[in-house]
Each structure stands twice: as C-alpha cells, then as structure tokens.
Amino acid sequence: MKYISILIFLCLVSCTSSVRLPSEVIDKEIPTIAVLEFENKAKFYYDWDIGYGIRDSLVDELVRSKRYKVVTRGDIDAVISELQIQQDQLFRPEGKVKTGRLQNVKYLLKGSVTDFAHVAGGGVRAFFSDLGLASSGDLAIVTVTLYVIDVESGEIIASKQVEGKAYAANMDVEGQYKGVRFGSGGFYRTPLGKACKELIGEAMEEVGTVIAKKTWYPKVIKSEVNKVLITGGEDRGLSIGDTYTAFHRGKPLIDPSNGDLLGYEDSSTAGLIEVIEVKEKYSVCELVDGEFQRGQHLRPFETK
Length: 304
Fold this sequence. Notes:
Elements: H1 2-15, E1 32-40, H2 50-65, E2 69-72, H3 73-86, E3 107-120, E4 123-125, E5 133-134, E6 138-150, E7 156-168, E8 171-172, H4 173-177, H5 191-211, E9 220-223, E10 227-231, E11 243-248, E12 252-254, E13 261-264, E14 268-278, E15 282-290, E16 298-300
Helix pairs in contact: 2-5
C-alpha cells in the first residue's frame, strides 16, 4: 500500500499542468477559430471519410499547440441547442448555464481535399484502380486547399494549397491499406499516413503565419481608486514590478468608398500602473498616475 500511495502521489505531481503558457505562445494572442468541414474531392478505394479525417487531425494539432481556442461547427450547434433546451421552463432554474457567454469566433478554417493517391511515373494511381499495385518509386501524395476567413469582414485572408508527400516502395496498395482505420497508429505508418502528417505540419505553419503572430498585451479588467486589475498573470509570465501604460485609442478611420477600417487616429497616454500581485490569470496593479477604464489596451512602459 505504501508503494501504491507513492506511485499515486508521483502521478498526481507529474500530471499537474502549469498555468504558464508555453514559451512560444506566452506573448501571442490566442484567437478563437472554428474549423468547418473539409470537402473531399479525391477518389479513394476504401470507404474512408477523408475530409472528416484530415479535419479532425488538424483540429487535434491546433488544440495541442495551445495557440488557439478551437471549436467545430458541430460543437457550436450542439452547445447552442443545449443552451436553448436549458432555457425551457420545464427545467429547474438551479444549475442552468448562463447565456450570452459563448466566445465569438474570429476566424473560420475550411478546406477541400484534392489529392489522396500514389503517383507513379508522372501519373496518378488512385485507389479505385482495378490492379491496385504500386510501381517502384511511387510517391504517396495528399493535397488540401486551405482557406482562412476573417469572420468580421467575411474576407478570405489566405488561400493556399498545402501538400504532404512520402516515399512508397513496391507493395500491394490495396492490401497495404485493407483493414486500416484512418487516423489510427497503423495508418500513420503507411505512406499516405506519413504524407498526411507532413500536410498537417504545413497547414499548421500556414495558419500560424496568417493568424497567430499577433502580439498579446494585457487589458484593463476594472479600475478602482488606487488599484487596477489587468488580464494576464502567471499564465502570461507577468512579474511584480512590471509597469504598463495605457492609451486612449483614437477615432476609427473608415474608407468612405467601401466602409473598410483603415486604422485609428493617434492615441493619447492614459497613465501608468505597476504590478504588485500576480494571480493565475490576472494581476493586481497599483495606480501610479492617470486614469484607467475597462477594456483599455496596455503596453509595457519604457523609460527613455
């Protein structure tokens, strides 16, 4: 029993995750994105839902990266349906989830699978081939056209064809994939599975380049007489003694021809605060100078 207790304790210690974000994410904004269905335009010998499988693989990597808050269309629909059901008078008021708390999605990701096959001698040997045999020097190729859409404007801000390739030696193609489930460990040991891994890596790099490079800065949660609460704490690596200044954002500049937001007029300094206490996800600051309001963006104070 003593050894079991020690093992349980060690497991609890090792499984406890730090609130601090990974170093590559700690100073970046974490946008909320919805991953839509991936249309499958590629022909395949077996009855695999290739679009669904590749989308789920991408969702898994997006979540594991901790750089995004990820939902799918099915998740959103299911949550909205449950919230609507809970508001019915047939259900008791205790334990009801409050409405109006769902986070707004900033970006949509969607795609279409255009290639899922072996290439031999300059031509494509898809899996509906009657022969089902690969020749020497074959390549497994998976290609997806990926779209990134800005929800606010509805504009497609990125469209790119991402591709994964893997060498495929002589083999019985049909036999190689028979009984293999898409996304399983066995699948990722096959040429097409390896090509999918490479494709997901390219897709992650493209998404990161387009929407995950924006620097994160704290915001004012609320301001009291001599104290200001701001977003970001241990999770964002804030420390006691850090100083921040805020700005009153200038008026928006709108393009009169199409209504696009072009930017903002010059902002003015609001004041200065210093961190005196750091919590898990927020910090308490002392008001040094000026006035602060909820929602103001902060910047590190730099002495000249």
